[in-house]
Write a structure and sequence with these properties.
Rossmann fold, 542 residues, alpha/beta, 7-stranded mixed β-sheet, 7% strand, 2 domains
C-alpha cells in the first residue's frame, strides 16, 4: 500500500483559529467521553470506593495523555500551556465551526499514531473515542510501524516532487537542519526495525520538513518511527494473530479443548491494529468454529475464532435438532408465534412431553453450559494477560458462545481497574442464556467495555425460552428481551428459534451497525444455512 508519511502528519492548511477550534472540540468531546465512563463506574455496585477512585484516576490519566498529544500536534495554540481537563470542563460543541472532515481525519490519524508511539499500546479507550470522531487509517499506521524504512523512502519521493514544484514556482526552500536538530536534541533513543535511529531521524525529519511538518510534531513523528520495533512488539504481543492458539495450552487445565484459530489467513505485514474474537455457540461440525465468522472482511481487524469443547458442542447441536423436531416443541413454536405467554404455554404441555424435553436439557444443554462457564474463565485470564497484544479487542458470540464472553467479562470486572481499562473495545452478544435482570452483572461488565455493549435478542426464540425455563426456572433471559441497564444497547433480531442464530448472525451484526462486514457473505450465509436446514428436515421426515 501507499506509505506516504505526510498522511500521518496534521493538516497544514488550517488557520490559527481553525486549529484552536479543532483542539477545543476534541477537548470537550473527550470530557464528555470521560464523564460517561465515570457514570458507568458509579452504577457498578461491585466496585469498592478505593477501586472506584483507582478507576477514575487511571481514566483521567488516559484522557490527559490524549489531550497533551493533541495540544502538541496542534501547534500549542496561542503559545499558552495545555489547559487542564478538570471535572467541570465545558462539554458543549454544537456551536463550534469545525474545519472540513478531511482535515479532522488527518488530525485524528496523527493523534492515533503518536499516542500509540508514546504509550506503546493502542488502548481500547483511544480507539473507541477517536473512531467516534472520524475515520482512522489504521492500515497506514500499521504499515508505517512495520516498515519505517520503506515509509521514509516513499515519502522522500513525494518530498522530491514537492521541491521540484517549488523550484519551478521560484520559491525558496528552507529545509536544512530541521530533522538533524530533532536528532541532536535527544529525541531519538532505542533500536529501530532494521534501521539505525539517526538515519530514521534525519530521513523523516528532512522529508517531512519539506512537506511542511515541523516543531514538536516532527520530533514526535521521528521518535515514533525510531522506536517502531519496540512499539509493534508491544502492540501485537507474544502471540500475534497466528501463534495465539499454540501458546495458550498452559491456561486450559479446566477445559480440555480450547484453541484460538484465525478466520482468514494473514501474514504479519497485514496484521490489524485491532482484534475481533468470535465465539460460536454450538457446532454442526468442526467447521462451524470458523464458518459463521467469514462474514467479516479480511482487510481490517484480525478475525480470530475461539475453539472450545468441539465434541460437546456437536452433541449439543444434535440434541437441539432433536428437540425442535418433537411434537411438543412444534406446538410451542406455533403458540409463541401467536404471542402466547411462555408461562401459560409451558403449563399447558403434557407431563410426558415436559419430561422428554427436560431430559435433553439436563444432559447436553446443562453440560455444555457448565463448560461454557469454564471456557469463559480461561478466556478472561487470557484477556487479563493481554495475550492478543496491547491493542483493542472486540468480542462477538451467540448462544453459549455469548455466555463464554460474559464469563470472561465477569473475570475482568473482578480485577483491579488499572488492569482492565484498556483491553476490551466492543462486545456483541446474541441469544445469550443469561439473566436479563441481574443488574450487578450487567453494570459491572459495562464498566470494563470501552465502547459498545450490545445485547441482541429475539422475542421468537422459543427454544431458548424452553431451555432456560427448564434449566433455571426463569423467563428473564437476555436472549429473549432487553437488558435495562445503563449503557447496554438492545437490538431486536428477527431470529425464529435458537437454532437459527448460526444462520442469522451476519444479518444480526448488520442490524447492530457493526462495521467490516461483507454484505455479499452475509446474504450467502442466510441462504446457505436455510438450504442445509431444509435438507436436514427432509432427511428427518423420511
Amino acid at each position: 500500500m501507499d506509505l506516504d508519511l505526510s498522511r500521518l502528519a496534521p493538516p497544514q492548511n488550517l488557520t490559527d483559529d481553525e486549529r484552536s477550534t479543532l483542539f477545543l472540540w476534541l477537548f470537550r468531546r473527550i470530557a464528555t467521553f470521560r464523564n460517561t465512563k465515570y457514570l458507568y463506574a458509579e452504577q457498578d455496585p461491585t466496585l469498592s470506593d478505593p477501586s472506584r477512585r483507582e478507576y477514575e484516576l487511571h481514566l483521567q490519566q488516559w484522557a490527559d495523555s490524549i489531550v497533551s498529544v493533541a495540544f502538541s500536534i496542534n501547534g500549542e495554540p496561542g503559545g499558552a500551556p495545555c489547559p487542564p481537563l478538570d471535572p467541570l470542563t465545558e462539554t458543549s460543541t454544537a456551536h463550534l465551526r469545525l474545519p472540513p472532515q478531511e482535515a479532522i481525519d488527518r488530525f485524528l490519524n496523527c493523534l492515533a499514531f503518536l499516542h500509540i508511539a508514546n504509550s506503546k499500546e493502542f488502548s481500547s479507550l483511544t480507539r473507541s473515542f477517536l473512531s467516534s470522531l472520524g475515520s482512522l487509517d489504521e492500515r497506514l499506521i500499521v504499515a508505517a510501524l512495520r516498515n519505517p524504512k520503506r515509509a521514509i523512502e516513499e515519502t522522500q519521493k513525494l518530498a522530491k516532487a514537492a521541491t521540484q514544484k517549488q523550484a519551478k514556482e521560484g520559491q525558496v526552500l528552507r529545509m536544512a537542519g530541521v530533522g538533524l536538530a530533532a536528532v541532536a536534541g535527544g529525541v531519538l533513543v532505542g533500536v529501530t526495525g532494521g534501521l539505525a535511529a539517526p538515519l530514521v531521524g534525519a530521513g523523516v525529519g528532512t522529508v517531512l520538513g519539506i512537506l511542511g511538518v515541523g516543531g514538536t510534531t516532527l520530533g514526535l513523528l521521528t521518535t515514533a518511527l525510531a522506536s517502531s520495533s519496540i512499539i509493534t512488539g508491544a502492540l501485537f504481543g507474544a502471540y500475534g494473530s497466528h501463534s495465539a492458539g499454540s501458546s495458550i495450552l498452559r491456561h486450559t487445565r479446566e477445559v480440555k479443548d480450547f484453541d484460538i484459530v484465525p478466520v482468514h489467513s494473514k501474514d504479519n505485514e497485514h496484521e490489524g491494529l485491532g482484534v475481533r474474537l468470535c465465539v460460536s455457540g454450538w457446532l454442526t461440525s468442526r467447521d462451524d468454529v470458523v464458518a459463521p465468522w467469514t462474514v467479516f472482511e479480511d482487510d481490517g481487524d484480525d478475525i480470530l475464532a475461539l475453539q472450545w469443547e468441539v465434541e460437546q458442542l456437536e452433541a449439543l447441536s444434535d440434541a437441539l435438532m432433536k428437540l425442535v423436531k418433537t411434537n411438543a416443541m412444534r406446538y410451542v413454536r406455533v403458540e409463541v408465534l401467536k404471542r402466547t405467554v411462555f408461562a401459560a404455554l409451558m403449563a399447558s404441555l403434557a407431563p410426558m412431553a415436559l419430561l422428554k424435553m427436560k431430559e435433553i436439557v439436563d444432559n447436553d444443554w446443562m453440560n455444555s453450559k457448565a463448560l461454557a462457564i469454564k471456557a469463559g474463565a480461561v478466556l478472561g485470564s487470557l484477556l487479563e494477560q493481554r495475550a492478543f497484544g496491547h491493542r483493542p479487542i472486540t468480542l462477538t458470540g451467540y448462544s453459549l458462545g455469548a455466555l463464554v464472553i460474559l464469563e470472561a467479562l465477569k473475570h475482568l470486572a473482578s480485577l483491579p481497574p488499572s488492569e482492565t481499562l484498556h483491553s476490551v473495545q466492543d462486545v456483541y452478544l446474541y441469544g445469550t442464556p443469561a439473566p436479563s435482570d441481574d443488574m450487578e452483572l450487567w453494570t459491572s461488565i459495562r464498566r470494563v467495555v470501552a465502547g459498545r455493549l450490545v445485547n441482541g435478542y429475539s422475542e421468537d426464540d422459543y427454544v431458548l425460552g424452553v431451555l432456560c425455563r427448564l434449566s433455571s426456572a426463569t423467563w428473564a433471559v437476555a436472549g429473549l428481551q432487553p437488558v435495562k441497564a445503563l449503557g447496554i444497547e438492545n437490538v431486536l433480531c428477527a431470529v425464529e428459534g435458537h437454532t437459527r442464530w448460526r444462520a442469522e448472525i451476519g444479518h444480526s451484526l448488520e442490524l447492530s451497525g457493526v462495521s467490516g462486514l461483507s454484505a455479499e457473505r452475509v446474504s450467502e450465509q442466510v441462504h446457505t444455512d436455510l438450504g442445509h436446514e431444509e435438507e436436514g428436515s427432509e432427511a428427518a421426515e423420511m
